[in-house]
Fold this sequence. Notes:
Elements: E1 2-7, H1 11-26, E2 36-42, H2 45-54, E3 59-64, H3 74-84, E4 89-94, H4 100-105, E5 112-115, H5 120-145, E6 150-156, E7 159-164, E8 168-173, E9 180-185, E10 188-193, H6 196-202, E11 207-208, E12 213-215, E13 222-224, E14 229-231, E15 239-241, H7 244-255
Parallel strand pairs: 1-2, 1-3, 3-4, 4-5
Antiparallel strand pairs: 6-7, 8-9, 8-12, 9-10, 11-12, 13-14, 14-15
Helix pairs in contact: 1-5, 2-3
Amino acid sequence: MIKVIILEDDREQRQLLSRIVSNRIMINETPFEYNMEVVLNTSNPQDVINFLSENQDSDYIVFLDIDLNSDISGLNVAEYIRDKIALAEIVFVTTHDEMLRETLKRRVEPLDFIYKDTSFKKYKMEIMSAIDEANKRYSRIFSSNKSNEVFTYEAMKGIYKRIPFSDIFYINKIKGKTRKVKLVGVNTQLTFSGELKDLEKKYKFFFRANREYIININNIVEMDSTKRIVYFSKNKNVKCSVSIRQIRKLIKIINA
Length: 256
């Protein structure tokens, strides 16, 4: 379940936001209610910190106002969340568009940045869109977790993200860069710090294709054993070569 937290110092805004969120949980584009629940709706940032300090083993989407007329700002709360619950989804709901740059500087990496000073229709749509996206991400990860097929990486220092293993084609070393690798997958290309040997050891579902690549054999569309190339797309644009030694192992695995 995704636990929803709302932090907003304006009572009317807080009630409006809570109503939009609760309605979207119940009525959405799927036949069912989302597996979400509003667990905290408050104007006090310390309430959020206290709650999260005692409930860290959950999935969260947190709606934060930035200016709370308090010694603790919404940005401070976001930094706390990133430190304690790195995979939580954060949505800023604010009138301070100038603070967007500050959120990037602090690397809290929000899911969305929604402005209050817009039409009600647009405001409502953006809140609902954030709820939909959080549910979509959670559903994919939850589905992957059932079979322990989820990959976690450090996008930036202290910020972690997850991607279903089923979306990964391969990971390769980046030439000329120490401890930097590139992940290529379904509509995805990203780089992060890591070593192939460490990833191969941690995630048993990777297959070592050669010294530079580890691959997801479940996503192989075609294999040319003569040329020692595996393809991950029908148009053969996404491919990887396999060493002589490893091609024999791969053939055995695929034909098993």
